[in-house]
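Input set for joint prediction.
Command: fold jointly, output tokens.
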Amino acid sequence: MIVPYSHVIVLAGIVFLMGMFCAVTRRNLIMILLGLEIMLNSGAIAFIGAALRWQLLEGQAIAIFILAIAAAEVSVGLALIVCAYRRKGSVDPGAYN
Amino acid sequence: MPIAYAHFPYLSSILFSCVAGLLIILFIPEDKKDAIKWVSAVCSGVTLLLSAYLFFAYDKTQGGLQFVEKYQWVPSLGISYYNGADGFGLPMLLLTGIVFFTGVLTMWELETRVKEFFALIFLLVSGVFGMFMSMDLFFIFIWFDVSLFPMYLLIAVWGSTRKEYAAMKLTLYLLAGSALVLPAIIYLVVKSGFHTFDLVALMHPGTFTPFQQKFAFILLYIGFGILAGVWPFHTWSPTGHVAAPTAVSMIHAGVLMKIGAFGVLRVGIFLCPEGWQYWAHLMALLAVIGIVYGVFVGLSQTDLKFVIGYSSVSHMGIVGLGLATVTVEGLNGAVFQMFAHGVMTALFFSSVGYIYDRTHTKSIVELGGLSRTMPVASGYLIVAALTGIGVPCLASFWAELTVFISSFKVYPLYGILAVCALVVSALFMLRVVQRTCYGPPKERFAHLEDVSFKLGIPRMILVSVIVIFGLFPDVMLNMIQTASIPFISGLP
Amino acid sequence: MTSTPISNWTVLMTAVTAVLPFVAFLLIMVFTRKNERLSAGLSIGAVSVSLAGALFLIIQYRHLTTSVQYAGKWLVSGFITIPVGFLLDPLSLLMLTIVTVICFLVQIYSLGYMAGDRGFSRYYAFMSLFAWAMISLTLSASLFQLYVFWELVGLSSYLLIGFWYEKFSASEAGKKAFVMTRLGDVAFMLGLLLVLMNLGNLDILKLNSPMVTAVMSPGLITLSALLIFGGVVGKSAQFPLLTWLPDAMEGPTPVSALLHSATMVAAGVFLFARLFPFFSHSATAMTVCLAVGTISMLLSSTMAMVSRDIKQVWAYSTISQLGYMIMGLAAGGYVAGVFHLTTHAGFKALLFLCSGVFIHQYETNDMFDIGRKGGRHLKTPMICMVIAAAALSGLPPFSGFFSKEMIMAQLAGLGNPIWLTAGLAGVFLTAYYAFRLIFIIVFPKEINDEAAQENSAVHGHEETEHHHDREMAWPLVILAAITVVLGFGKKMLQGFLSGRLAGVEEMAGHHSDWLLYVSVSLAVLGLVVTWMEFGRRKAGQIGFVERIPALKSLFLERWYIDRMYRRLLDVVIYRGVSNICTQNDNRVIDGSIDAVCDGTVKSGRMISDLHLSMIQYKLLVMFVAVFFLALYFFF
Amino acid sequence: MTLYSIIFYVLAVLIIASTGLAISRRNLVHAVVYLVISFFGVAMLFYLLGAPFLAALEVIIYAGAIMVLFLFIIMMLKVEAFEERFFPIRQWLPALGMCVIFIVAGAFMILGDPDTRIPLKAAAAEPVAFGHYLFQAHWLAIEIISLLLLIVLVAVLYLGKRKEQYK
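tokens >
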């Protein structure tokens, strides 16, 4: 017996909120991307927990897709940041208005 | 209400001469200023003659709506082009004719953008005329808005002190008003179940339940009341007066504010008599506050036009008080006061405009001693001020008197307050006269020339109208009574 | 009281009498402003026709016992009917005669006095306006009409006081006069409305008929009588609205003679007399009127004791004499009050016109200056002035003696001796201040050479303008003659007046001899005291009041009534209410409107920010939106 | 309380603490390093929850590849040198408000459902079985993902090139 599924959900939720908080408040493009990563990760946690809760492998499958998408997103995102940085010389999102 | 169709479309001819004037002016080249002015004078003169003719040709023994023209326009929506004149409308038409004609003559000296100015004035006035003669709710609303829009340009382009601010404020206020009026009109039309915008048809008693009347009336009252300078919604009007050029101030204070009061009467009171009775006390309260408040604020103003602006607030309060009494005398007094105040402020603004054009100041602190250098101009100003005080044998005295008597009967306390405001109004009008006209003549105004005969014509017309209706008030009151007595006696 | 039917001829005559001056006014204002002689001619012509009409009417109706009334409609509005018409009865005929006579004389006099003034035409126009308003007021058959012309009289007073508008004090005084009388008029109007509401009619005859008590409760009658009396207080410059009249002396002297002593201010008393039966329904109102009359009589007499300005002295004396009239009327002496009004109009006009000659000649208002510059050398005005002053102080055999005597008798008839005492004190004070002025001018103390030279220069000047003097002298002589003769017409007048109100006159019967002696001796005492202080050779020309500084400043400052008004106006009206309202307008109403506008603009900005700026806001909004959508779908 | 649950709570605390530290670091390198710790914790959590294969992937891809990528970029741009406005209040307050409602709503959601009180049974998905399952049931998704990765590769190459080379 591990823990009730709700605890996993709470953990995932807290991590998600942290990621969101990071993405929304930090004035730095890289940190925003980092926040997105954290959020994706919390999603993965929730799915893994759900897979165990209902004893179905779909959850794990989705988690693997999340991983893949996270990788794709990060690479594109970072490439964009590099581009933007080259243009403006800043990673402050306020500088791109 | 008896309805008499016209043999000849007099009312449409009034409108037509406005529109024709507008079109002709648009086709005259910009630089032929004299031609433009003459066309304006002739067309406005025609409207004056026609409205004066209608005023005297109206059959008072028969009463009701006369000179009616009615054509279906959009039958599926029940909209018709429906003009008619009754005892309430005719004084207003006459007033508009007088103010329009004199306003055009007053602006004879205008040199900048003459063509656009007169074209816009014509547009504005055709809206005003339409509003006063239309008996179709849809057209009433259309004319109402037509008369509001040119004001923005007229003030913003040809105005003075803080003109952009004033123009914007005025436009926003007035649009807020029409934003209340439109839903009320639509509400009434939908709830009536008659599927028509015809005012006369909708007036049929029992069309609306008391609740519908109360609801629609308060919307209409505030919506039109904003334009009539009802107390807490009045601040646009002094600002607007100050900023507007002379003729626009004349039309604005003389006629546009009347559109508001007339709208309350024509749409609000006609369609929702029970709502009117229900809200009458509120109307009276606001009106009295306006009367007293206007004079006190006017007392501490130093800009001539602000002074007149606040006196307008006070005088329009008298109109409101008259409407709020729900009596024949009150209605008579209110409509008469609309007329008298219109002519009076027109005179006031036209003389102030003359003084401002010459001295380039409107501040009563800087002015002084004008009676020596310009006796005639200041004479007009004094006559206007005396009319404003309510000196007997000048038109507005009778209007105020009848309103006071009827309000004293219905709301004794308000009547007393309104009468007491007379003292303060005397104080502030005489203060203005003293500061501008009296006192030792000032060096810098010594060379200024007095009103010439040509420029004096519009002012003379206004003064003589004031004196004639002051000496023979019955001419006007008989006219108004043809509408007010049947209306009040027909109330539930 | 019924009305006798009247002939068309009378109607026409009355209409012409009333309206002609107005026609003159319009003609002068519109056409002949440039032509001075024509303007004066028009005005004088109109007023002389009016005079002729008035004389015709009074002769035609000399045996009048019932009123003659004619009414047409001026205005009908629902239940309000404002008639235009006239009411001819002894009172209105008498007043009409007074008004037209004095108007006529003053206009003749003004030919000399106003000669060469820039506003000559304007002056005559305003004079005509006044004549019209005053005559119509006198003839009014209903209180509405009376109110209308009452206001118009006030207007012409305003215009004439501020006639020399370039002087700040003149325009200020005009404004003050208008506003203060307006204050009274508002009370008057409220009284009218009250009566109208309860009686449904403002006909003077109806108001005076006994049926009023049946319709209105005693409290209502008292209230409305007091309110109407407010109008009297304003127009006749009684306490507490008395301070405008001395200031009104800023106008040309003939104006002061006509409006502010003889006729217009007497309109208040006239109204009181007009509604005498109505007032006498309420004992409370009568007592209040009596008190007001007494207070103003005493106050203004004391003010007159220290003033140096010749016209102001007469202005104060006007207030006090009007006070006498009101006392007389309020004590129940209808004939006494009206008789005093009549005699007063004569001698007071005379006093002012005489002073006008001095002022015109020496160009100063200061009585000491006039005396020093040789005022006594102008024989005709000096003699006339002495006659008038004697009449004013109630010395026999001049007209004032008879009328004052009647008032005293009336006061003696009252239960409370305080009124009589006050009245007698007034007699003494009147004699004192009137002769103080006379003695100061006749027996100047310090004639220096310079003044004497000036004096001769003035005489030379006089020769060149001799024709003006004649125009100014004739009215004086006529008025002086009237002053001398009028007193003996007491019986006749009494008969004429009481034809209308036979019942009211019983009270006048208490005429006792001791009262006569007491009041005459008091007047003589006043004369003697003045002689001791001002007249005799070694007199210091300092009055006993002036030896007490506190009293002197109190009197000079007009009992501080003026200052109180000024402060009231400044503090309460201007700085108080007006300022608050203005601030409210700018801060609260405009402020809130601007706040609404700014709020709209700001919120628009905020929303547009979500679309334009920070990527993170978009992110945030996205989260919020998704979150709420999720909530919506799950629950 | 079983050993498993103790491990879960320890891991939870570890994850939350290191994530919290990561998002509040001013220095980006530190942030990334803390996040790596957090990802290790998540990987162990995956293992605990019966997904050993995913735990391995987590370490390899997240902690290994992605974070290193971040580090490269940070170093390449020398972003540590930039002074960042730290948690500006205009963003901070709405975010906080958002978080509060999020937590409240979430708490209601979780506590309101009695089903979630049941403890999880320990189990593990064998990597081989998982692989079979994945390629049998989700082969299309796998293909799409790989196509996506290819596109990303192309895109990143395109973005990474300097624009001047085309001109």
